[in-house]
């Protein structure tokens, strides 16, 4: 292998190493984002349940009904 081919091979190996590091970093970020989204979905469901319980226990008229004096 001549010097030119060897330099080209080294550049290609460097590019592959950088691309592999970038892919691993993006994969890690995606995984972290997915975990955060799942956590937020769970929290939203919990808050929706809690809000529904509060509405059910309030015993007042439904929010979309006009007050009795109308």
Characterize the structure shown.
- This protein is mostly helical and 70 residues long.
- Helices cover 80% and strands 0% of the residues.
- The protein contains one helix and no strands.
- The radius of gyration is 29 Å and the shape is rod-shaped.
Listing every helix as H and every strand as E from the N terminus to the C terminus, the arrangement reads: H
Task: Determine the strand fraction and express it as a percent band.
Answer: under 5%
pLDDT averaged over residues: 91
Specify the structural class.
mainly alpha
How far the N terminus sits from the C terminus, by CA atoms, comes to 93 Å
Rg (CA only): 29 Å
Question: What percentage of residues falls in helices of 4 or more residues?
Answer: over 70%
Uncertain residue segments? none
Q: Give the beta-strand count.
A: 0
In DSSP terms (H or I, runs of 4 or more residues), the helix count works out at: 1
Topology (SSEs and partners):
Elements: H1 3-58
Please give a handful of descriptors for the protein shown.
single chain; 70 residues; 1 helix; mainly alpha
Give a concise summary.
By secondary structure, the protein is mainly alpha-helical.
């Amino acid at each position: 292998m001549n010097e030119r081919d060897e330099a080209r091979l080294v550049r290609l190996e460097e590019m592959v190493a950088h691309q592999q590091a970038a892919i691993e970093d993006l994969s890690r970020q995606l995984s972290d984002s997915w975990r955060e989204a799942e956590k937020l979905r769970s929290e939203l469901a919990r808050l929706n349940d809690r809000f529904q319980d509060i509405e059910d226990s309030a015993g007042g008229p439904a929010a979309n009904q006009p007050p009795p004096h109308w």
